[in-house]
Amino acid sequence: MRLSALSFLAAALLALPAAASTPISLDQAMAHPDWIGAPAETAWWSWDGKQVFYKQKRAGSALRDTFEAAAGAARLVGDAELANLDGATVVYNRARTRSILLRNGDLFERDLTTGALMQVTRGANAVAAPQYSADGGSIQFRVGHEWLTWNRVDRLLSPLAMARAAKDPAAPPDDDAMRSDQLRLIATLQRQKDERDAGRTRAEQERRADATRAPAPIYLGDKVVIDGSAMSPNGRYLLLATAPKAGEKGRIGKLPRYVTESGYEEFDDQRARVGRNMPAPHTLKLVEISTGKVRDVSFDSLPGIGTDPLAALRAARKIDPLKGSRAVRVDDDGAAIQWSDNGAQAAVMVRSVDNKDRWIATVDLVAGKLKPVHRQTDAAWINNGNNDFGWMLDNSTLWYQSEESGYAHLYTISADGKSRALTHGKWEATNIAWSSDGATAYMLCNRQMPGDYEVCAVSARDGAIREVTSLGGVERFALSPDQARLLVHYSSSYVPTQLATVPARGGAALVLTDSRSAAFKARQWIEPQYVAVPSTHGAGTIWAKMYRPAQLEPGKKYPVVMFVHGAGYLQNVSKRYPVYFREQMFHNLLVQRGYIVLDMDYRASKGYGRDWRTAIYRQMGYPELEDYIDGVNWMVANQQGDIKNVGVYGGSYGGFMTFMALMRAPDMFKSGAALRPVTDWTTYNHDYTANILNTPELDPEAYRKSSPIEYADKLRGNLLIAHGMIDDNVFYQDSVRIAQRLIELKKDNWELASYPLEKHGFVQPESWYDQYRRIYQLFERTLKQE
């Protein structure tokens, strides 16, 4: 049995009673989650691995406190102790005798032989991207896009590279006939110019001769902005990702606020709509620090970059074909540029703006050219996650993640170009973390079922893999400084995120926290049953969580409620504590009131591989609806579900799917609650929507096919729309527009509930209660009819 690895303490602390569930009221289910108990948040090891610290929210407050974890009672860390604490972001030197940590935007270094902590910076500007120099003698970091170095011997902090998106003041002015005439005719002007030029020349000569001077700024011109930068640990090169400064600006939406402290209406600027402000293409620049020489590194060598995967759509729309190479981007956060520890090698991850291709290439630092080493391409879109990569300790082998097999797995590629899969199978390897000796990669894995996450370890030598934990709902983990243990964040259906340590070799977990309140632990909840619903549309198995009475009454037919989770890239049928914990309590209430509930990981959900994710390409709401119809039929055939009384509800993507269910399958879905729904994908953002539907200009049919507002005339059932009026994710306008459409179509049995002070994710308990009161009353009114 997999749970046998849990310690006796863990089982005693977290076991849930098997008896009948305790009735839950709607008011209690929608109350502030403080009544449940605040979960463990950010956690980290002490520098010597002897202690674990974590953050936790105060009850009745948004403030966080720091605690020292223990198997018994946690200890509140006093304010006087905070100055000597470590943090979750730690960088080690190669010998692991020193470490860098960031805290409150400042940089510190700790001597791991003595524990002594030294502050390197103290300032208003936050430090980012700290790393050790190749020789370990100094620390490099950036503030904005200015790179600095701190030398441990002389405690000197100095600029290493100062990139400026500005015109070089010493550069000759642009040719201008009037300027030339002025200098030719007015001797004083010419003399003043000569004096300025001579002064700049002399200042540069003095700077070059004086080793105590800061390096000269690197001017890139005033036509670009810097989006990313990465310094070589040997201090010789800087790689920069730049974008055109004068990029196209789409029209920005205005979000009105009606309930304000001032008493007047107020307006906030928001995002542009999909296709209205295309991502700016990047240029990769290589800077030689010693000379300040800047070279553009061409992307033209990337395989397939000159081929347009959307050429057929352009032709059909009579849009001019693309010329030359496709536009690409290097991710803005700097993680897409990776230097080897010795600074001799650089690799870059490049993504096409259309998101059909993702390349990894090394940089020839002498020639200033890219050498492609891996390409991942997809006719739909490349996953935005599961793309981590970096250098191994030998400074010549790369490791990377790829979905090329259909699932996200871990690979290495040697200097001779030979690629090797370290993991494989119909599961995903994510959150990769390498041991300090580079011999083992630790990762999250879901080998037993898509929603059952453990920590796995794989050997870099032979690919041998083993499961380290047996907790079922691991969320993230961190290796201890001595590499002997894992600090694990984990959870389960009714246990919010907690902390445990597990031996890195595998074994029993030592539970450190149980933050649940006595009131929450005293309740007996309905445990979801994990069921495999067979697809009748060739999709294989559709995993779902089912909530139902322990015993079904013989001969009784139960009204069915189908829950649809949100998207972006989300999974809800997992053994973790759900994001939708309020909805889970609501499902308990529904079962108490005579319903049965099914919560499905429809196609496009996270954790199921590439084909599952991209099934919705150019047809959002179609494969997912097929899955939900299969779910309803399975509930009818196997769980005494009443085919005549089926309801559906969900928020965001779940709200979108509620519309699609009611409007495209009105004979099956009788009632639905669409919360904060997308009703027209042309109004949503670019980064998410263009991956799936391309752009409205290029692929209008995909938008028409996928937008509920196009099917409003098909509505026959009972509909509740609920939306926060200051939602800055899915704009309130989406619900207002479809409301007007329903008015014009003279549709009845629908209502719009508006929440003036709520964004996309509701916060106030009163709003949660009002929204779910309406959902409950809708189902009671419409799904309990003969």
Which descriptors would you attach to this protein?
about 775 residues; about 20% helix
Summarize the structure.
Helix content is 18%, strand content 31%.
3D structure, described in words:
The protein is an alpha+beta fold. Helices cover 18% and strands 31% of the residues. The strands form 10 sheets. It has an 8-stranded mixed β-sheet with strand order 37-38-40-39-41-42-43-44, with helices on both faces. The longest helix has 23 residues. The N terminus is likely disordered.
Distance between the termini: 45 Å
Low-confidence stretches: 1-19
Give the spatial strand order of the biggest sheet.
37-38-40-39-41-42-43-44
Shape: globular
- Strand percent estimate: 25-35%
Work out the helicity level.
Answer: 10-25%
**Helix count, per DSSP?**
14
- Major sheet, described briefly? 8 strands, mixed
Structural class: alpha+beta
Radius of gyration: 29 Å
Question: How is the topology of this model organized?
Answer:
Layout: H1 8-14, H2 26-29, E1 43-45, E2 52-57, E3 64-68, E4 75-76, E5 90-92, E6 98-103, E7 106-111, E8 117-119, E9 128-132, E10 138-143, E11 146-151, E12 156-164, H3 177-185, H4 187-209, E13 218-219, E14 224-231, E15 237-244, E16 254-257, E17 266-269, E18 283-288, E19 293-297, H5 311-316, E20 328-330, E21 337-339, E22 346-352, E23 357-364, E24 369-377, E25 389-391, E26 398-402, E27 409-413, E28 419-421, E29 429-434, E30 440-445, E31 454-459, E32 465-467, E33 474-479, E34 485-492, E35 495-503, E36 510-511, H6 518-522, E37 529-534, E38 541-547, E39 558-564, H7 581-592, E40 596-600, H8 610-614, H9 623-638, E41 641-651, H10 653-664, E42 671-675, H11 686-693, H12 700-706, E43 718-724, H13 733-744, E44 750-755, H14 765-782
Helix pairs in contact: 3-4
